[in-house]
Structure formats: structure tokens, C-alpha cells
Hints:
By secondary structure, this protein is α/β, with parallel strands linked by helices.
Amino acid sequence: MQDIILSAPSFKSVIHCGAGAFEKYAPLIGDNAFVITDSNVSALYGDLISSTFGAAPVFVIPAGERSKNYKILIKIFEKMTECGMTRKCTVVALGGGVVGDIAGLAASLYMRGVKIVQIPTTLLSQVDSSVGGKTAIDFNGVKNVIGTFYQPSEVIVDPLFLKTLPAREIRCGLGEIIKYGALDGGIYNTLIKNQDGLFDLAFLESVTADCIRHKAKVVSEDEKDLSGARKTLNLGHTTGHAFELYYKRKSHGEFVLIGTYYELYIAQKSGVCEKSYADSLRALIKKVTNKIPAYADAEQAAQAAKYDKKNERQTSVSIVAPAKIGRSEEIILPLDKYAQLIAECARALAEEK
Ligand SMILES: NC(=O)c1ccc[n+]([C@@H]2O[C@H](COP(=O)([O-])OP(=O)(O)OC[C@H]3O[C@@H](n4cnc5c(N)ncnc54)[C@H](O)[C@@H]3O)[C@@H](O)[C@H]2O)c1
Ligand SMILES: [Zn+2]
């Protein structure tokens, strides 16, 4: 077990990471806990929650992205006030990224901000969403459009929870892990060395700590996403989010894998990324999923990319492209050129089949 410290000018988060972290640190949260979890996690870990948090109120939201909405947020506030939670309470977000995002937002608003401890239970939330303090709900059909920056005082990352995670959710987490691999040479080498055992739990436990360390460093340099450092964490996400808006059916992590695959094509065609390096990243993606869809109307889906937060205007698209081992580069493309390359990549994928 190890502690990773995220130290930014305005705050410090401690991330307890490794087997045994839950048993050691969760009981120390104290009597004032208000636990937020989802229906799947509650069904699997209800006994553990009650034996750890005793009589603390537990608010269970329906599992799934659709719970990240303002109606559920209001219900959380209703329950918190009914239970008499004071400014001294600690919100405990026990679940995946959906629970973490909405519980983080609730904690940042309740009585102008109460303490929050994140206990991520999916691979994706362990390597990514529980660290860095971005909170959000979706609104009016737009993902993550209402939110705050609000840092957890502690994050408890325990591989214990991964044992019950379906393979599809492991795949989602690996989407973000491969993203880190395209940004960080050390993580890239680890992934290449272990490419035949990417789903192995012992491997996932060790690479999780590497990813958190990478994210903690980036967030400590650019907490509010202003200087450009944090923007790199969006690798694969411009296209991933565009497809996510258009096709909907899959989950965030799967779209990150797909987005990274398409953006590798753009990076290569734009001369930013050499074929051999692009091939090695593509091979890693294919170890995680052999289903990269050849979207038939990719060009139309690409139109959705113009709404990406990174764009300064809606006539161009910005992507963070893998360049060399451990290095990424921003590419800004006119919207029509971007759409054309996305469509070309989809055609190349269709021909492979
Ligand atoms: N705040 C950030 O910086 C950030 C970063 C990345 C993603 N996100 C957000 O995170 C969300 C995706 O997170 P996610 O992939 O964890 O999704 P999720 O929270 O929906 O969890 C995925 C599924 O796994 C189930 N689950 C959770 N823990 C489990 C366990 N231990 N065993 C069995 N099943 C379990 C959940 O009930 C759910 O059905 C998206 O809303 C995305 O926007 C936020
Ligand atoms: Zn992501």
C-alpha cells in the first residue's frame, strides 16, 4: 500500500492506494459520514458498508449514467437535510465515476462545501475520475455541463472492489489506462511489457498507482485546467465524446478506446505520429477490444466534436494526439478536414472486416 499526495497551491489530497486501503482508512472517516453509492454497489457491498459506516445514512442512486442529473442531486440534498447533516459531515462517494461525480458536486454545494472522501469501486474511477476534483452532472443532453472543481480530502483506492467488476467495466478502465500510456513513457513501457496480461488483477493494481501518480502530477500543475497541462488528459476524448453524444450505446471508457483509435489515424495522417508507434498503440487497444466500430456516419458524428470544450471556435477541432513515446501534441484541424479523416478511418476499418 502506498500514499500518493496531490499537492496543488490551494489544497492537498491524500490518495491511499493498494490492497487493504479500505479496511485501514474507511473506518477512520468518523461518525459524521453521509454515504452515497449506487444500486449495484449497494447490492454487492451492502454488508461491508453497514459494518464499516455503522448507522451513517446511506443514499443509493440507480446505477448508470442517467443518474447524473439535477433531480437526483436535489434528492441527495433532501436526504442530507432530513438526516440533519451539518457542515462537519463528510460525504463518502462509494462507487464508480457516476457516484463520484454527483457526490462530489453535492459535497461542493451543500452548506457551501463539506468534506468529501472518494472511494472508487470501478477501474475507471480508480485510475481517473476519483482524482483531480472535477465534479459534474449532465444537463439538457450535454455531458458534464454543470459542475465544480472540488477536491476530495482523501481518496481510498482498493483493488478489493475490482474482483466483482464485469469484464466490460475492466475494459472501460483500460481505455483510460491506455490514454495514460500514450502520455507517459513509463506507463507505455509497462503496458507493452504486460500486453498479454492487461486484465490481470495484480497488474491492474500496480498500473493503477502509476496512472494516479501521473494524474496527480498534472493536476497539481494545472488544477483548474487553465495552463494546458491538464488538457493532455483529454487524449482520445475529443472523438470519444463526439461519438458518445451521437451513438450513446456504449460507456465512456469504451468511447475513449474508440476515440484514441480514430485519433491515432489523424495523428499519423497529420505527420505528428510515426507509423510504428501508432501501430504499437493500436495493438494495445486491440488487446483490450477487437470491436472498434467502423461508424457508417462517422462524418456526421464528427460534427459533434465542434462542441468540445477545447475548441476556441466551432469551425475547428482540437485533439491531443499521441506523438512519440511519452509525448503528445495538440493538433487543430478545420472541422471539414477533421470530419474527412474520421470518415476515412471508418472506411479503413470497414475494409479490414
Ligand atoms: N470527474 C472526472 O474527472 C471524470 C473522469 C472520467 C470519467 N468521469 C465520469 O465517470 C463516469 C464513468 O464512470 P464509471 O465507468 O466508473 O461508470 P459507473 O459509475 O456507471 O460504473 C459502471 C458500472 O459498474 C458498476 N459498479 C461499480 N462498482 C462496481 C463493483 N465494484 N463491482 C461491480 N459493479 C460495479 C456500476 O453500478 C455501473 O453499473 C462518467 O459519467 C464520466 O463522465 C469523470
Ligand atoms: Zn475519460
